[in-house]
Amino acid sequence: MCGIVGYCGKEHCANLLIEGLKKLEYRGYDSAGIALEENNKIVVVKAVGQVKNLENLIKKSDKKAVLGIAHTRWATHGKPSLQNSHPHTDCSGDIALVHNGIIENFLELKKELLKRGHKFKSETDTEVIAHLLEEEYKKGKDFFTAFQKVTRKLKGAFAIAALNSKEPGVMVAAKKQSPLVAGITNKGFFLASDIPAFLKHTNKAIFFEDGDTVKITPKSIEIYNADFRKITRKVHTISWDISAAEKGGFKHFMIKEIFDEPQAVKDTLQTLPPDITKAFSLPLKEAKKIEGVYIVACGTAYHAALVARYIIEHFAKIPVEVEMASEFKYRPIHFKKNWLFIAVSQSGETADTLAALKNAKADGLKVLSICNVVGSAIVRESDYSVFTHCGPEISVASTKAFTCQLTVLYALALQLAYVQGAITKAEFEDLYQELLTLPELLKQTLKLENEVKKIAAKVYKSPSFVFIGRNASFPLALEGALKLKEISYEHAEGFAAGEIKHGPIAIIDKDVPVVALAPKSDLYEKMLSSCQEVAARGAKIIIITNTSVKNALDVPYTNEYLFPLVAATVLQFYAYHIANFLGREIDKPRNLAKSVTVE
Ligand code: M6R
Q: 89 CA to middle of ligand 1, Å?
């Protein structure tokens, strides 16, 4: 989705803003633009396509500006074009602004503005904000007051940053349901949709809340809440390492992030407090009372939730309901008392997950979130939070976040099992010890990359790809298929192995490679039977197991519920190398955005 970067301070900012936009490229975009304020004048430059196209258009003379806003646009209203790209300006060209989100009432606002003589240059919803600001400012208010009034008229989701050449040295901003964070340096302030945009310059960040309006000058930041009351917000120290947001010699962020997994899991495990009864910030009394768990998430996080269902039900013996956040709101669920609601999200900003969480909270459920971004919207709305410590995940296709989400969920399952008396302390300790070996197991698994690459080289031209698994490995099959289709654009599907004979086997033939997830377990023989069924239709079978059989991709041995946490890496390699052989744009796949901040 769109990315915003702003700067107000003492430094020349054109390059800072471009650099910030490049760090937000992972969010997905089709055009980019910048507005710089200099000598009481606003210069707007836009380009379709990549940020580097924009960079080439910025004149040397404009590079001295110390105040500016920049944007990458992911088209919603109107095609990708120069006219539709941000920043948008009012009729006079004095006011420029960038916006992320959707203004739901823009049509009615636009109709009124047109009647009052405003001239529109774009098809976007955003442009109405510039014209509304122009009108409000003309009423004689100062720019910030006018801006606050305008935000009251907007329905929908927005993060906005705006400038006015008539009030040089001031940047104003607002946030409602779209992410916006400020970075604080000793030379000025950044505004951004996400931390990597300014992480090189500062790790001090303020996360704004819905309804906040903000006035920034080179020396000060004033924040007002939804009632326009001046308030202070906590300054967070971000522990991410800057190098984590760089490719570090790898061809793509995705492959780098797969190789980050052992460390990310280690960091995640180390931050879970050793006192198991406090591991999830849930008071012991509450944890004991839990009768069931709802888990809601989207995309890859949803697949982590599906795997967790098997793990929690197996160890803690309590029921788990998993729902896609985007569908959750359409079900008239009567929440069961004493059920815990868990939201899983890498970004902590996914609008669908946030909406589902708010529903559950409104119905009186306690909410626990598992997120990667401290201070994100989902974290702020939750009663309790546990963090994955992946550092920034830049590649649109989620890899290390998935493994870390599963790590936290696995630990949670063990804790619930113990506090609820489903396993003994000794059993808990054995299982937890096994979990603690995961970073090492992942390091071993990374050694399979070349083997997986050779397989990918043989199958990458296939017309379709299938993944099968049973029990906790069934959702992993879904994730394997999602990963592959996201970055290769090829057709891929995941199935419960026992289900293929009920229909999906019709698509199997000699050209369809089938990845079979077959950990050692009571179901191993059944998995082999499923493999026989597809082999009989001529399919090429790629077995991922931990049983040391010949001609299989053999990952280190674990119990079958820990297997998905280890085998995920192999599927990620498989997707990566197929997409790479096909020459796809792996880190920024077509049509996808990293952080989906609209419902
Ligand atoms: O930030 P979130 O974990 O809430 O994001 C959820 C999905 O949008 C995300 O997992 C998406 O499916 C990724 N592209 C997966 O690779």
A: 33
What's the CATH number of domain 247-436, 1.25.10.10, 3.40.50.10490, 3.30.70.3270, 3.10.50.40?
Answer: 3.40.50.10490
Tokens representing 278 are 């406090």
Tens of pLDDT, residues 159-196: 999 999 999 999 999 999 888 999 999 999 999 998 88
Q: Is 593 in the pocket of ligand 1 (CB under 6 A)?
A: no
Q: How many angstroms does the Cα of residue 26 sit away from the middle of ligand 1?
A: 12
Q: Is ligand 1 within 6 A of the CB of residue 347?
A: yes
- 2 annotated active-site: yes
Class of CATH domain 3-238: alpha beta
Q: How far apart are CA 187 and CA 209, in angstroms?
A: 24
Taking each helix axis from N to C end, the angle separating 261-270 and 438-446, rounded to the nearest 10 degrees, works out to 180
CATH superfamily of 447-586: Glucose-6-phosphate isomerase like protein; domain 1 (3.40.50.10490)
DSSP state of 502: G
SS3 state of residue 533: helix
Q: Is the CB of 300 under 6 A from ligand 1?
A: yes
Q: How far is the CA of 301 from the centre of ligand 1 (A)?
A: 6
Of the listed 46, 483, 588, 594, which one is catalytic?
A: 594
The span from the CA of 69 to the CA of 94, in Å, is 14
Q: What is the residue with the minimal CA distance to atom 14 of ligand 1?
A: 397
C-alpha to C-alpha distance for 168 and 152, rounded to whole angstroms: 24
- All structural domains of the chain with their residue ranges: 3-238, 247-436, 447-586
Residue of the CA atom closest to atom 12 of ligand 1: 299
pLDDT digits 0-9 by tens, 402-458 = 999 999 999 999 999 999 899 999 999 999 999 999 999 999 999 999 999 999 999
